[in-house]
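Researcher: Going back to the complex we discussed earlier. I've cleaned up the inputs and rechecked each line, so this should be the final set. Can you rerun the prediction on the complete assembly and write out the structure?
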Amino acid sequence: MERNIALSLRYEGTRYHGWQVQKNAVTVAGTLEAACAKVVGHPVHLTGCGRTDAGVHAMCYVANFRTSCRIPVERLPYALNTHLPEDIVVLKAAEVSAGFNAIGSCIKKEYTYQIYNDRVRDPFYVHRAYFYPKRLDETLMQRAAEQFIGTHDFAAVRSVGTDVRSTVRTIYDCGVTRQGKLLRLRVSANGFLYNMVRAITGTVLYCAEGKLRPEDIGPILDRGDRSLAGPTAPPGGLYLTRLWYEEEVDLFD
Amino acid sequence: MERNIALSLRYEGTRYHGWQVQKNAVTVAGTLEAACAKVVGHPVHLTGCGRTDAGVHAMCYVANFRTSCRIPVERLPYALNTHLPEDIVVLKAAEVSAGFNAIGSCIKKEYTYQIYNDRVRDPFYVHRAYFYPKRLDETLMQRAAEQFIGTHDFAAVRSVGTDVRSTVRTIYDCGVTRQGKLLRLRVSANGFLYNMVRAITGTVLYCAEGKLRPEDIGPILDRGDRSLAGPTAPPGGLYLTRLWYEEEVDLFD
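Model: Rerun complete. Updated structure for the full complex:
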């Protein structure tokens, strides 16, 4: 009987052209599918919880695949990690119901955008945070971030490129915290459009710079015009940080 | 009149063959000397506060050089950083007394060795911490670390290679702390021998594994036999973290 196996993983995305398998480009899914094939003994097709872009990281990512291989799930992380490069790690594996699908069963996701805010950059945050030397006021940024909460058409903060049926999503929470020189913008939603968190970040930073006011954000979303919002922040600051599923899955600690 | 300029810097050492200039190898000093030459308009010879090895990092490093260039010191960090790769950053510059020497005037240094201790490795600590999957008891490690405190001949915990007049040094403090999955061994001393902190780390880890007892360390130091102590831990976990100078220098925040 075929089993449905879900994996939770973590990856440092700098070296990869994103999650999604592409011809002639090294991707996280392509690398992980090759490792899975070696361990289970047959070609594997992975379904991921979303498309992360080139250079984007995941503290937590979920993918599932079907196999008739009888290897105990608790041995899978170790077996897979011996076939994976150091910047991708399988944290846990679990057998899930036949209907489970890493993207379809996902009801909520959280992304965190990390900004390194100091006069001089830090060599340990290269590709890991967006270096922003101008002093940022996190209280003002928090006010800007809150404007995105709710069910809206988010066409104004996405990049065109992928066809989607609807650009309406629900953001449950959107806020900014500071820990020393690190600012973090956390956004949780029932789904994200292409480049949405990076465009939200760019827009919140525009407010911090006085190029937009927090009260401009509502009307910008209403107009749905991408050119009115802030720029798309670079990928290295973005992390997929949390996932919620409709069924309980034993993938997270 | 020639000025003596000191710089504090931070670097992520993964890409470098250590601090010291070498022919046919990319080093931190070589890279920084090239940037200095561009800014001051003449060849520059840097004196560093110590030789860090290939792959070793510095949260804080001090180097000095002499120049007749009149550029204001407060403009130097920005000017140098525009000529430096992202993994080396000049934090601050200060004019120091004619007799100041980054290594000769340094009276105390602190190194921190970072261990990532969990069942599975973390892709964000590759080259930044030593991945150690076996459960480590930091209380036992602390007891082992304390044995190194004091004035001893440290020949048993150094690699032969560089000629030194004496292998006697004074360790002021040596201790282990845990923060979640990260263990940190901090050692401060009036000077360090080649690979000394990495050999101390390997020895403390030997104690954690039961291959040595903390009370074995004193006799091992007395015997001065490198083969009795633990192995040299890998370079990626090692950070130069703090420096003390005999004169007050305006280089640290």
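Model: Worth noting: Strands of chain A lie at 3-11, 47-48, 57-67, 88-96, 106-116, 130-131, 150-153, 168-179, 182-189, 238-245.
Researcher: Good, that matches what I expected from the previous run.
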